[in-house]
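I am still getting used to backbone structure tokens and would like to learn alongside you. Label the sequence line and the structure token line clearly, so we can match residues to local backbone shapes. Go ahead whenever you are ready, and we will take it from there:
>
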Amino acid sequence: MIASRAIAAATRLFTGVRRVPVAPHGDGPAIYFANHTSHLDFLVIWSALPLPARLQTSPAAAEDYWTASSMRRWLAARIFQAVLIPREAITRENNPLDRLAACLESGRSILIYPEGTRRGDGQVGVYKSGLYHLARRFPQLPLVPIYLDNLGRILPKGALVPVPIIAQAHFREPIHFSETETKPAFLERARAALLSP
């Protein structure tokens, strides 16, 4: 708890991101989704959440990266309670959606990046189908879009040292899954909700 608070406070101080006073979707679990521009993305969102929501939110994180050292493994498991996602050799046994679904079934929120990979151009790419499949499996859960601004400039892809620039995490109005919507229509609506002012 102490380490969690210290890391969140340091992140807010360094990036200037503001903490939201209450969870944007109310009580209970949610599926947060954001644009992906930097290794700092999930740390900034996690730090911006109010403490109760932060302690109940698990980010999806690349398994190969977050298990590469004992420090990363400790941070992923003990501080962030991340859902580790394989990026290669995906099988039925290690299906990323099943891991995320198990986290949601336990009553926790998750944070995912529907684009799948970081972009360096500041644009929000086309969404892959994972968000749709999760929303379809959990239609009762709110889907909370989060638009990240300036994170790609603080720690651009390939950079090792962050630059102190003010960042913002814009929590948009939650959306909900509709059984009558096609997958392309849902993904476009979710992307539009993230990009809405």
Summary: The radius of gyration is 16 Å. The chain has a mean pLDDT of 88. The chain has one domain: 2-195.
